[in-house]
Amino acid sequence: MQIANLLITIMIRCPVDQLRKGAVSLLKPFIKKWEFKGRYQLLRKQLRESNHFGVAGYLIGILKDFVHETLQDTSSNSWFIGQHLVDLCQYVFDLPDGAESDILEQSDKIIAALNFLRYLTLRDKLEVNATGVWTHLNDLDEHYLQPLHKGLDLSIAHYELKLEEIQTKGAKKDDRLNVSVGGQDLPAMPVAQQKEVLKSAQFTFDLIASLLGRVGEVISTEKRMQKDPKLCS
Question: Which of 87, 3, 94, 114 is closest to 51 using CA atoms?
Fold first, then answer.
């Protein structure tokens, strides 16, 4: 586990781009060297302790691959399905501050989590429910999807207001302005450049909204087909 910690530290803190990319390329192969139990324990530790949303997003992508491998496998591996997976998902589908969470700051993890959830609901049908996702879907909706919807709406409104504010100030005076994005104060920069930063944030919000819509569509379709099997034909 110390090797994994070292690779993640390099990914986050190393100033040399080539070394950071090297660490990223080595982390997944290193985890795959372990048997499924070891992979599970390592991912659980890293997801539980990670305070870097980009790293968390990358780990969720690895988790998705291991779940897929498990569902494709005919062996008795149970570490990435059922209750084991449910326990692990508490570190995947979490918004510590609920609707007040900084959606932009956490966007890498949120996007990875939504992609993972969409995969689970598409790959693991309700009548099979090998992963346990359908059993806990109501809790997931209440404690993750609904707060995320609300937080996203708040973030979109906030950034639209910021963009409108910059456009108004810029129209009055072509000067350098200060703006806070993702909880961080941006360095003073020209109005045009700050507009681009805010539009980039809006693009991220649009992506999250799209993924939320797709997840909701998959869930609704699956539930309708279970109620009326004729829809499957």
Answer: 94
Q: Is 172 helix (H, G, I), strand (E, B) or coil?
A: helix
* Average pLDDT of span 118-143: 94
> 16, exposed or middle or buried, with CB in 10 Å at 0-12, 13-18, 19+?
exposed
Measured in residues, the chain has a length of: 233
- Cα gap 92→145, rounded to integer Å: 12
Q: Do 35 and 90 form a contact (C-beta atoms < 8 A)?
A: no
Query: Does pLDDT of 12 surpass 80?
Result: yes
Residue 194 pLDDT exceeds 70: yes
pTM of the predicted structure, to 2 decimals: 0.89
How many whole angstroms separate alpha carbon 109 and alpha carbon 93?
9
Listed range (8-17, 73-82, 129-138, 200-209) with the worst mean pLDDT: 73-82
**On the CB side of 22, how many CA atoms lie within 13 Å of its CA?**
8
Report the C-alpha gap between 69 and 43 in whole angstroms: 15
